[in-house]
């Protein structure tokens, strides 16, 4: 798998569950089991986190907070439509991109 994430993000037991699920001929029967299904969901969540690129992580940590902060300031100044900015993905992307391209900005 890409960047060997399967081995760095998952322990031996998680990889075993994942391989077993893939090997079983009728995956739907395995997934129907609530216990196994929950384990697989947790494993996939770990993989999802491990595969995120640095820009996505920065959007989640910096961009969302910055968008909320700036939209709140604009609303305080009387521009009520600015409430929508806090959840607009283009705006969060834009703020994160500006932060990454600002010389000397802390990252």
Can you tell me about this structure?
- Helix content is 70%, strand content 0%.
- Helix 2 crosses helix 4 (34-50) and helix 5 (54-76) packs across helix 6 (89-100).
- It folds into two domains: 2-50, no CATH class; 54-100, no CATH class.
- With 107 residues, it is mainly α.
- The two termini are 28 Å apart.
Structural classification: mainly alpha
Strand and helix order: HHHHHH
Q: Enumerate how many helices there are, as a single number.
A: 6
Calculate the mean pLDDT score and round it: 83
End-to-end gap: 28 Å
Q: How would you describe the oligomerization state of the chains in this entry?
A: single chain
Q: What gyration radius follows from the Cα positions, in whole Å? A: 20 Å
Topology, number of strands? 0
Sheet bearing the most strands, described?
none
What is the approximate shape? elongated
Short description:
The chain is built from six helices and no strands.
SSE layout and pairings?
Elements: H1 5-9, H2 12-23, H3 27-32, H4 34-50, H5 54-76, H6 89-100
Using brief descriptors, characterize the structure shown.
107 residues, mainly alpha, 2 domains, 0% strand
């Amino acid at each position: 798998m890409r960047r060997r994430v399967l081995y760095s993000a998952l322990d031996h037991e998680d990889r075993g569950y994942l391989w077993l699920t893939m090997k079983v001929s009728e995956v739907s029967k395995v997934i129907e089991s609530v216990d196994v299904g929950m384990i697989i969901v947790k494993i996939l969540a770990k993989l999802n986190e491990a595969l995120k690129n640095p820009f996505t992580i920065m959007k989640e940590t910096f961009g969302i907070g910055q968008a909320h902060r700036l939209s709140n300031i604009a609303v305080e100044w009387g521009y009520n439509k600015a409430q929508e900015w806090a959840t607009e993905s283009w705006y969060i992307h834009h703020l994160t991109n500006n932060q990454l391209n600002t010389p000397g900005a802390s990252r």
